Amino acid sequence: MFDGRLLNGVGVLAAVIESGSFVRAADALGLTPSGVSRAISRLEARVGVRLLERTTRSVGLTDEGRRFYTQVAPLLGGIEEAAVAAAGAAELVRGRLRVNADPYFSRLLLGPRLGEFLDRHADLQLEVLTRNEIGELVADGMDVAIRFGEPPQTSLIARQLLATRVVTVAAPSYVERYGRPKVPQDLTEHTCIQFQDSLTGRPFEWEFRRAGETILIETRSRLLVNDAGTTLATLFAGVGIAQVFELGIKEQLRNGELIDLFPDWPDETFPLYAFYPSRRHLPAKVRAFIDFCVEVVG
């Protein structure tokens, strides 16, 4: 079992040796000379040998004390270096950063710009793992997670990065073949690509909102997917109609590859959050990544 008093005593011993006296060591440590003396006595009792020779004029190591201090001095240096390195983590973007990323966000927005982030931070090693769920962030060894949807009941800190509009879209080829629904209620007569909620296992409900009004449309479909990439692929192929995030498909809406079927229902949105374990002492690498994600979506 680790004895913190032993480490404290070794620190006091180092201060005495470096300063050359109990008085100067006491000043450096913020203790009284008698407090320094008691700490050395406790250390000597703990290791079972006399470490210091004390005279009225000087203090020096015994032979046993010299051997002891020769062994522990490098360890003290290592502890100090580790403390400095840990403190630097709050200011320097370096080390390994492990990210649990939403597949849609990672594929369409984050992935194409990761080179920029790495170019800015040459001392950083980045791991981006795409998953449909947050899981146990700390137990999985993750530093930060990026997820769509309202925060679950969790001890994690959640920072909203944006709220993207939910749009109901189809490819021109689908509209040419099956016609364009004029109102949301017409969707009951169309092929709708449903998306599975990873938390419930059921398809997401189709909502439409404008000016404080909300309507729910019950869609029926033989196609259920749980991957945004598959949703987009089936959309472009003209298989059906889907509700997707405007974030990531703005160019396709502009150039006509996808059609926003109900632009007069513009108010349904879905949030994107960054999750991390603690608000205190946030490492610089996590802060830099979250700021970069804000830049990406902004």
Automatic annotation (TrEMBL):
Residues 12-62 form the HTH lysR-type domain. CDD domains: PBP2_CrgA_like. GO terms for molecular function: DNA binding; DNA-binding transcription factor activity. Keywords: DNA-binding, Transcription, Transcription regulation. Belongs to the LysR transcriptional regulatory family. Transcriptional regulator of the ttuABCDE tartrate utilization operon. This is HTH-type transcriptional regulator TtuA. It comes from Rhizobium tubonense.
